Amino acid sequence: MGWLVRAARSTATGLVAPLIAILISVIATSLVISISGSDSGIGDFWRVMLSAPKDQTMVNIVNLAGELYIAAVAAAIGFRMGLFNIGVEGQYGLAAYVGAVFAGGMFLPGPLNIIVAILLAVLTGAAWAGIAAVLKVYRGVSEVITTLMLNAIGPIIVTHFLNRYGQQTGYEIQTKPIGRSSWIAGWAPFGQDNGQIWTLGLIAVLVGAGFWLLLNRTRLGFDLRATGASATAAAASGVGAKKMVVVAMLLSGGVAGLVWIPEFFGGAHTYSSATFTSNLGFTGLAVALLGRNRAGGMAFGALLFSWLTCQSDALQIQTDIAPQIVEITQGITVLAVVVAYELVQRYRAGAEQRAVAAVLPEAVSA
Amino acid sequence: MVTSETALAPLVELRDIGKRFPGVVANHDVNVTIRPGTVHALVGENGAGKSTLMKILYGVQRPDDGTVLVDGTEHAFKSPSDAIAVGIGMVFQHFMLADNLTVLENCVLGAERIHGIAGKARAAFVDLGQRFGFDLDPDALVEDLGVAARQRLEIVKVLYRGAQVIILDEPTAVLVPQEVDQLFTNLRDLRASGHSLLFISHKLDEVLAIADDITVMRRGTTVGEAKPGSVTKRQLAELMVGSELPSPETAESTVQTRMMLSLAGVSLVVGERSVLDGIDLTIHKGEVLGIAGVEGNGQTELVEVIMGMTKPTSGAIVLGDVDVTAMSTRGRREAGIGYIPEDRQRHGLLLDAPLWENRILGHQTQPPNARGPWIDRRGARRDTERIVEQYDVRTPSIDTNARALSGGNQQKLIVGREMSGDPVLLMASHPTRGVDVGAQAAIWDHIRDARKAGLAVLLISADLDELIGLSDTIEVILRGRLVGTFDPTTVTPAELGTAMTGGHD
After folding, report:
1. Residues in CB range of A183: below 8 A, 6 or more apart
2. Which of A151, A320, B164, B197 stands the most exposed, by the fewest C-beta atoms within 10 Å?
3. Strands B88-91 and B165-169
4. Which of B343, B348, B359 is nearest to B460 (CA)?
5. What's the rounded Cα separation, in Å, for the pair A334 and A18?
6. The dihedral of CA B488, B492, B494, B498: what is its sign?
């Protein structure tokens, strides 16, 4: 019973910060709209954003949320140990290309082709992140700098190889599309006209469950969290700092490699600048922050950001507000949530101490 | 403003100062009077409450009780700028300088309002340097400066801001002897020009060499005042350490013949300083080896080297029959080393994690906390309940975060944890620091019982009574070297105090 009350209470206080942040971003977005001089007003904006999504939009929200969630988990693996892998963007971009090239070659029969392509994507993401890990461990270079740099380098490599070996189709250069046998049919809850929810979106669920299990139930996860909570205490407890950096970076990059996989096998079937969805890595960082790097919190964050993005498409049809306005909403949410979490955290620490003192004065006095 | 030569610093009085943090009384009934134009030394062991007191005087923290009087006027500093406004400045132990700026730029940084940032500022800086003999090139880059020059710059910074009363937090800790002499020359010049200096230290030689007045702190309060002419180092040391505590006497010897830990020629060089210098020591099963020494003489590094957190520059460490010199910290812990760290909040706890997770810390790979690659939550929780029970940790639940508990209760949890799983060697750094008398006695009992069962213990403590009462052998450490071995059954605190400070009074 006790743990149930505790869990309920911690969930309730856990929700306070994001709710405050969302409230602030709602106010700020409204302000921006009201001073931006569009004919449509604040009411129009929120009417569109809060209207029930159309069937197709619903499918898009789920699909995008899955991708964002994987990206967020990738970032969170590092964040939880105080390691800032800002390079999810570059890692999944490179991984997507490598996976697409291999899968397009159709070297292996049936499902094996898919499985190996996914594995290759994971390894590519891990390797790209691994460069930053090695530089940090052996040269002391901040992973923030290196992963950002690698974000810039990744797409250049992809473009080079795509131009050199890709197929020209119309204005686009693409990788060789995968054969029918490697397509993975999705689920079309509203009929085929309204799009499919990608089957491999389930990867997001697996990644989330794995992330939770890793952090809360395994020794490695404990070491990871301990390092994030207190690097000095972790070192004294026997956690090897260097090894942890490498392991966390490889895991983070590996998960990042999965970000675009559901879309590739579910809909794109080829990699080109038209089919590839970029920026998921950066938005994923924001989702991780919003969800406080917790498996559940990030699911909420991914759905929220996905909702905002997908619903905003209707803005240009129904109003004269630019859909990019939701990026302001998202940005302010993240900014506000970071501050709000800090405040809530301090309040909770103080509140717990007072509560303990009230129940058992000698716990805090001796 | 640059002070004129004749201006005398104000009289600073701290009356009945008290400061409480959750669960800790950091200061109580502290009384210090700093006479104008004097060097006033504040001495006491780490944790005696010196830093809290100076933070109160410098406006970093506000006292819960008592008053700060400057020239008879009561002041309630809200921030350091309030303290600076009445002429109180502080030189921190850890320098606060921007490496990539010049000396002059660092001095002016944050004080641009006084003389601007150009010619006038330079003139004021040069003038200060000349008057007090601070040999500093205003255009040198701070990254090219040595430690002593950086410290001089910190002092000039404080003077530049018009300080008449300067707090120096362990200024000699980072200096070599010649640099200390140079610093003292500077300080004497400052005193001669009417400045007051609050000199915080636990190095008694230096205190006696420079101070006009001495105030001794212990356990959060001022316990005595002295004049350098009429007090010996030994008397000061006794005042600092105190001897009113319950005696931790150990009955008959339980030392066995089997060697548990041995260090051979262990040295550690940091930068150019030799922090540990050819340490040889042996601890047998059932033996408590006490290390006595004034803090900062290599104790911390000795523990870190044995724990594998720092690699020694040379020498070998053998645990039982195994050479562990190259082994990781985790490997050593798995081999049975328990560790009660000196700084429990930094090295012993995850403050924002519940007690049962803190039970796992340091023993992540061992039962009852782990099964294969998995954390055994149930096992860890059950064992935490046991520790809470056996070690009398006062807590509402094992789900309470460590931060919410008092230092004493945190320490009891750590002791319980490190005694679990049958360690063969316990590294105990100040195991009863900041712990109330009841808990102290309980911790001593636990150490004694474990010793009887064959545990080898390395005990580091600033409390000489604790060392004498618990140890089978006492080694004295001074400037990174073991300088004497004593039998605790015959040695007196006074004799130890003499050895700790280098053999003279």
Report:
1. A265, A269
2. A320
3. parallel
4. B343
5. 9
6. negative
Cα angle vertex B148, ends B145, B152, to 5°? Answer: 90
The minimum CA-CA distance between A223 and chain B, rounded to whole Å, is 8
| Partner B, chain A 66-95, Cβ-Cβ below 8 Å | none
Please give the average pLDDT of every successive group of 10 residues along chain A, which has 366 residues.
Answer: 66 79 90 83 87 91 97 96 94 96 91 95 97 95 95 95 90 90 88 90 96 96 94 93 94 97 93 93 93 93 94 87 87 88 84 79 65
How many whole angstroms separate alpha carbon A277 and alpha carbon A254?
A: 18
Q: Among the three residues A309, A326, A355, which one is the final residue of a domain in this structure?
A: A309
CA distance B396 to chain A (A): 6
Q: What is the pLDDT of residue A3?
A: 64
ipTM of the complex: 0.86
Domain range for A112: 59-309
CA A32 to chain CA centroid, Å, is: 27
Note whether B16 and A358 are within 8 A (CB).
no
B348: chain A residues, CB-CB within 8 Å: 233, 236
Q: How many CB pairs under 8 A join A and B?
A: 126
Does the beta carbon of A322 lie under 8 angstroms from any beta carbon of chain B?
no
What lies within 8 Å, CB to CB, of A78 at 6+ separation is: A84, A85, A143, A248, A249, A252
Instruction: Give the integer Cα–Cα distance in Å for A129 and A246.
Output: 9
